[in-house]
C-alpha cells in the first residue's frame, strides 16, 4: 500500500509524515484551507475567518495573499493543496467585476474536482449574535431546503459539495447531547441562504425531545455566480470506493418490500430407495441385491445432475 | 393551535424528506413559497430549519443507544451517500525482483529475534543495527588469508566493500521502482543493441533467439513464450552446402525425388505441380509462333533462354 519514492525519507518521523499523506483505504478527514486573494474587502476577510472557525480543527488559514484565478488557472491552487495536503478550499477575493467573491471547492488527487463562486450579499458575523456558541469542532447537522437541490444538476452537485465540506469527521458513535449545531442551506431563486443555529432540547414527555433553535451565526446570503463541475468521468473515478470497505454481499438472501427475509437453499434430490421405512422382511436388500444396487447408482447420478442445474 | 400546525407540517415534511443519518444530513425537496419567504425571510428560514432538525432528531433518538459514564451515545449507521474520495484508491505495492523470485521459489523469510544473548559480554544484544552482536566493523584485528597481499589496507578495503554493497542495494531499489512504474530500465553491462535502435521484426527474433540460449541451461529450463518455437524456427541455423565432390548416388536420388514430386498425381494442390494443360497450351502456342515467323526464329530462340523452357512450372 506504500507509495514507492525515489527519495527515501531520512527519519522515521519523516516517513510517518509521508505515509499519512499516502492514499488510504479509510481516508483522513478532509481538511479545508482558507486563502485570501490579491485584493480582499473587509467582508471577505471576515467571512473567511468565520468559516475558518466553523471548520476548525480541520482547517488552515493561509496568512499571505495569493493572487489566484482558480477558474482561469487552477494549477497554483492545486499546488497549494498538494503542499499542505488539504483537499477542500475556500478562496476569497474582491474585484470590480466580481465584488465580494467567495470560491468554494474540493479536490480529488490534487486536482480541482468542482468549485462554485458565490457573491456575498448579506453577512452577519458570529460576534454580532450575542449568545452562547457551540463547542468548537462539533459535528454539525446539515439541513438542506429548496427544490433546486434535487432538480438542478448544478445544485445537486453543490449539495454534495456542501455536505462534503461541512460534515466533518465520519463517526460511528455520537453523543446525543452533543448534537447542538445545525447548519441550514436554503436554495431559492438563484440564491443560497446560509444559517447556523444552536439546538435546545425541550422535554416532550417522550424519548424524543422537542427541538428549538437559536441563531448563533454566521449568516450569509450568497448569489451563485460561476461554477466548474468535474467531468462525469473524473467524478465517477473519485467516487469509486475500495473493495475493503464495501459491505459483503450476502448470497441467496433476499428481502422483499414488507421486510420479510427469504433464503434460497439448494438440496440434493432425495434418494427414496434408501429411505428407512418400517422394517419388514419384504424390504430386505438381500432378496434383490443386484437390481437394487443398479437403481441406487442411477439415482445418485440423477441427484448430482440436479444440483448442477440448480 | 401553533402546535397543531407544526405537527401537520412535520408530517408533510417527513413524507417527502430525504435523510442520510450517517452524515447527519436532512433534505426537504419541497419547493419554497417565495411570497411567504419574502414577508420575513429570517423567521421563515428558522421555521423550515426547525422542522428539518426535528425530523432528523426524531430518527437519531430512535437509534440504538449505549450508556458510557452517564453519557448517552447513539450508534450511527454508515453514511448512505457516497461522497468523492480525497485521493485515489491505494494500489497494492508492486513486488520487487527478489520478492518475485522468492514467491516463485517459495522462499519465506525467517523471523529473526531482535535480541540475542552475547556470551562474551554477558548481555542481550541486538541481532542487527547499532551495537549489534558480531559487529565486524568493530574488530581491531583482521585475519589475512595466505593468498592475499599483506601490504594493503584491509580496514579501508572492508569499508569500501561495504559501501559498494550499499550502493548496489540502492541501485536495485531504484531499478525496482523504475520497473514497477513501467519506465525503461537500464540494463547492467552490455545490453543487446537490437532493441535500442529501430526495433525490427527480424532483429527482435534474433534477440529472442540469442536471449533464449543465454542461460546456463541453454534454454532447456527457461520459461517459453507463447509461439516462441514458431517464431524462432530456423533461426540460428547455419546454411549447408553440398560438397563439390558429391557422391553421384546422392545427387541422382535428389533429382529423382524432385521428378517424382513434379509428376506424382497424388498431391494436386502442391505449388510445384506440373500443370499439364497449361504446359501443352504453351507448347502449342510456341510452335505456332515458330511457324508464322520463320525469320525471327533464331532471335526468339535465344531470348527464350532459361526462363521460358518448354515445360514451365505453374506459378
What's this, in brief?
The complex is a heterodimer of chains A (310) and B (315). Chain A is an alpha+beta fold and 310 residues long.
How much of the polypeptide of chain A forms β-strand, as a percent range?
Answer: 25-35%
- The CATH class of the largest domain in chain A is Alpha Beta
Number of helices of chain B: 11
Largest interface: A-B, 69 and 59 residues
Order of helices and strands of chain B: HEEHHEEHEEHHHHHHH
Distinct helical segment count of chain A: 7
For the record, the CATH architecture of the largest domain in chain A stands as 3-Layer(aba) Sandwich
Radius of gyration of chain A: 31 Å
Total strands of chain A: the figure is 13
- Number of separate structural domains of chain A: 2
By CATH, the superfamily of the largest domain in chain A comes out as Brix domain
Radius of gyration of chain B: 45 Å
The spatial strand order of the largest sheet of chain B comes to 1-2
- The oligomerization state is heterodimer
The helix-strand sequence of chain A is HEHEHEEEEHHEEEEEHEEH
Overall number of strands of chain B: 6
Strand residue percentage of chain B: 5-15%
Which segments of chain A are poorly predicted (pLDDT under 50) over 5 or more consecutive residues? 294-310
Give the overall silhouette of chain B: flat
Structural class of chain B: mainly alpha
Amino acid at each position: 500500500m506504500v507509495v514507492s519514492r525515489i527519495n527515501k525519507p531520512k527519519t522515521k518521523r519523516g516517513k510517518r509524515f509521508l505515509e499519512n499523506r499516502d492514499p488510504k483505504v479509510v481516508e483522513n478527514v478532509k481538511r479545508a484551507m482558507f486563502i485570501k486573494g490579491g485584493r480582499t474587502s473587509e467582508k471577505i476577510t471576515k467571512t473567511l475567518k468565520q468559516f475558518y472557525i466553523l471548520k476548525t480543527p480541520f482547517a488552515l488559514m493561509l496568512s499571505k495573499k495569493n493572487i489566484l484565478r482558480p477558474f482561469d488557472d487552477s494549477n497554483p491552487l492545486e499546488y497549494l493543496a498538494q503542499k499542505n495536503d488539504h483537499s477542500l478550499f475556500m478562496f476569497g477575493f474582491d474585484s470590480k467585476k466580481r465584488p465580494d467573491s467567495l470560491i468554494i471547492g474540493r479536490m480529488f488527487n490534487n486536482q480541482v474536482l468542482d468549485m462554485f463562486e458565490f457573491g456575498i450579499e448579506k453577512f452577519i458575523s458570529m460576534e454580532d449574535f450575542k449568545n452562547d456558541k457551540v463547542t468548537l469542532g462539533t459535528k454539525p447537522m446539515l439541513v438542506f431546503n429548496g427544490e433546486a437541490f434535487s432538480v438542478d444538476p448544478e445544485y445537486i452537485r453543490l449539495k454534495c459539495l456542501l455536505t462534503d465540506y461541512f460534515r466533518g469527521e465520519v463517526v460511528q458513535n455520537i453523543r446525543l447531547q452533543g448534537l447542538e449545531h445545525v447548519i441550514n442551506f436554503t436554495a431559492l431563486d438563484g440564491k443560497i441562504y446560509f444559517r447556523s443555529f444552536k439546538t435546545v432540547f425541550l422535554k416532550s414527555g417522550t424519548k424524543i425531545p422537542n427541538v428549538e433553535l437559536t441563531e448563533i451565526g454566521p449568516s450569509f446570503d450568497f448569489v451563485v455566480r460561476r461554477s466548474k463541475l468535474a467531468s462525469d468521468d473524473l467524478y465517477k473515478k473519485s467516487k469509486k470506493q475500495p473493495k475493503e470497505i464495501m459491505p459483503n454481499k450476502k448470497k441467496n438472501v433476499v428481502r422483499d418490500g414488507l421486510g420479510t427475509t427469504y433464503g434460497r437453499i439448494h438440496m440434493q434430490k432425495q434418494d427414496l430407495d434408501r429411505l428407512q421405512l418400517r422394517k419388514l422382511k419384504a424390504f430386505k436388500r438381500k432378496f434383490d441385491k443386484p437390481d437394487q444396487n443398479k437403481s441406487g447408482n442411477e439415482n445418485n447420478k440423477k441427484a448430482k445432475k440436479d444440483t448442477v442445474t440448480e | 393551535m401553533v402546535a397543531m400546525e407544526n405537527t401537520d407540517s412535520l408530517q408533510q415534511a417527513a413524507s417527502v424528506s430525504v435523510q442520510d443519518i450517517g452524515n447527519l444530513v436532512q433534505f426537504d425537496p419541497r419547493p419554497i413559497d417565495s411570497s411567504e419567504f419574502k414577508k420575513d425571510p429570517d423567521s421563515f428560514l428558522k421555521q423550515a430549519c426547525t422542522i428539518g432538525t426535528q425530523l432528523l432528531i426524531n430518527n437519531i433518538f430512535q437509534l440504538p443507544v449505549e450508556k458510557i459514564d452517564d453519557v448517552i451515545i447513539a450508534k450511527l449507521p454508515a453514511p448512505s451517500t457516497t461522497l468523492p474520495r480525497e485521493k485515489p484508491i491505494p494500489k497494492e505495492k508492486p513486488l520487487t525482483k527478489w520478492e518475485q523470485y522468492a514467491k516463485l521459489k517459495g522462499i519465506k523469510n525467517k523471523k529473526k529475534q531482535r535480541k540475542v544473548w552475547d556470551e562474551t559480554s554477558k548481555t542481550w544484544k541486538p541481532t542487527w543495527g547499532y551495537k549489534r552482536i558480531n559487529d565486524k566493523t568493530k574488530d581491531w584485528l583482521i585475519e589475512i588469508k595466505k593468498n592475499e597481499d599483506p601490504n594493503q589496507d584491509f580496514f579501508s578495503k572492508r569499508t569500501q566493500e561495504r559501501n559498494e554493497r550499499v550502493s548496489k542495494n540502492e541501485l536495485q531499489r531504484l531499478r525496482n521502482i523504475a520497473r514497477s512504474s513501467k519506465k525503461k530500465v537500464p540494463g547492467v553491462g552490455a545490453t543487446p543493441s537490437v532493441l535500442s535502435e529501430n526495433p525490427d521484426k527480424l532483429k527482435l527474433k534474433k534477440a529472442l533467439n540469442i536471449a533464449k540460449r543465454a542461460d546456463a541451461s541453454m534454454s532447456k529450463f527457461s520459461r517459453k513464450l507463447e509461439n516462441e518455437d514458431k517464431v524462432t524456427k530456423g533461426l540460428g541455423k547455419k546454411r549447408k552446402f553440398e560438397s563439390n565432390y558429391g557422391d553421384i548416388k546422392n545427387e541422382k536420388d535428389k533429382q529423382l525425388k524432385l521428378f517424382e514430386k513434379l509428376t506424382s498425381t497424388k498431391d494436386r494442390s502442391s505449388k510445384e505441380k506440373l500443370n499439364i494443360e497449361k504446359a501443352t497450351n504453351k507448347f502449342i502456342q510456341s510452335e505456332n509462333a515458330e511457324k508464322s515467323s520463320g525469320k525471327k526464329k533464331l532471335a526468339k530462340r535465344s531470348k527464350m533462354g532459361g526462363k521460358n523452357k518448354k515445360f514451365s512450372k505453374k506459378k
